[in-house]
Fold this sequence. Notes:
The chain has 166 residues and is an alpha+beta fold. It folds into two domains: 3-69; 81-163, Immunoglobulin-like (Sandwich), CATH 2.60.40. 40% of the residues lie in helices and 33% in strands. It contains two helices and seven strands; from the N terminus they run ααβββββββ. The chain has helices spanning 3-39, 41-69, and strands spanning 81-85, 89-95, 106-111, 114-125, 128-139, 150-154, 157-163. The strands form two sheets. A four-stranded antiparallel sheet has the order 1-2-7-6, with no helix packed on it. The longest helix is centred in the N-terminal third of the chain and has 37 residues, at 3-39. It is rod-shaped and about 125 Å long. It starts with a helix and ends with a strand. The model has no long low-confidence stretch (mean pLDDT 84).
Amino acid sequence: MSEEQKHHWLKISAIIIVSFIAAFIAFYLAMQAMMVKITDPLYNAKRIEKIVQHQQKELRKFENSIVSENPFEPKIRPRLVSLVKEPEEYKIIVDLKPLEGNENGIDVNIKDNIITIKGELDKKTTTGEKIINFSQSYYLEEKINSEKITKEKKGDKYIITLPFED
């Protein structure tokens, strides 16, 4: 082997050894940084807290899906029916949004100063069946003139006016 070839192989060997040492040092420094992080109690506490928060969020999602998707539990909507007393009449305001704007599903019954409003929607869709039923009763202090009761739809509201007897 000539002197030039020996010199060439020495260069290649030196490059390989330097590369190996550099890779070892980089690996050592990365492992050292990881060990410092892992053994740091504050880092571990933050990591555990983040995991717990994630698990709590997932649990809330799961609980909400169970509560909202239980077909045997009635769906409660706040204030579907409101009673407003005015100087000359009562107004009953029914929210038609759950009934998809259809006032035909509303039934009003008055007996012995008790008014009962019932609503119903039974609709079959491609994804299943949508059933909504509600009933609300009110005791009215004043006598109602049942001949002058009016019903009208305004947007998503169904307004039943019950004038007092003179």
